[in-house]
Amino acid sequence: MNISTLTIGAPLELWTTRYGAMIGVDATDNDNAVRSLQHYGEWAEKELDVLSSFVIEGQHVLQVGAEHGAHPLWFARTVERGGRVHVVDPSRLALQEVVGNAILNRLHNVYTHQFRAAAAEGRRRGDNGQDEELINSIDSLKLERLDVLKSNVKDDLLGVLNGAADTVRRCHPLIYARTSGIDNVEAEVRKIKEFGYRCWAHTPYLHNLQNFRGETGNIFPARVWQNVVAAPIGSSFELDAQHEL
After folding, report:
1. Residues 100, 124: contact at Cβ < 8 Å?
2. How far apart are CA 133 and CA 143, in angstroms?
3. Alpha-carbon span 171 to 68, nearest angstrom
4. What pLDDT was estimated at residue 179?
5. Which of 20, 136, 151, 171 could tie 64 with a disulfide, CB 3.0–4.6 Å?
């Protein structure tokens, strides 16, 4: 599977992927991104199929949720030196992994911000039950420019959006986000539309038949994301009309 093991203190995995060489520091067996990167050499590639239609050189991108830096590496190569890629995640180790993978691939346009994106500010006990997490808003970054906002937070997209309201209204970024499930998606889409946006549904399979390694087996049978793609009303961006929400 094109995986090497480095021993520097604790063993590290070095993955050969579609996005470049990647070190797996925070790898766990139940992490779908890890499983996909190990087996296929890519992660959620069907999301990038859509993103590649509007991410261009020189843009500023923000991704909420590090996911080992796979998509940030793709963003960084696509926007090139003239662009910027911001990554927000509450985990110090996850962001160190992003920085390490950016350095490994000689990418100098990746910026990390350690907090859990939400509408309010404060602190909470982390998911591991030990480390304390900083909670903050996207608006707290006071970005002067943002062309694309990608959210991988599937359990609190509404919190991410509420905390990014000023940034979205000032910068009018295209939005690509994983929704929080059938009970919350209506409120999440309504919130995006309040910003003056049109929304489309995108349900990409986790498995990509044309994967980087050419693996034929599907380790994610019938698994899809329920995502939303959104663009400001009046922009030139369009998706299939039958999927507009």
Report:
1. no
2. 22
3. 27
4. 95
5. 151
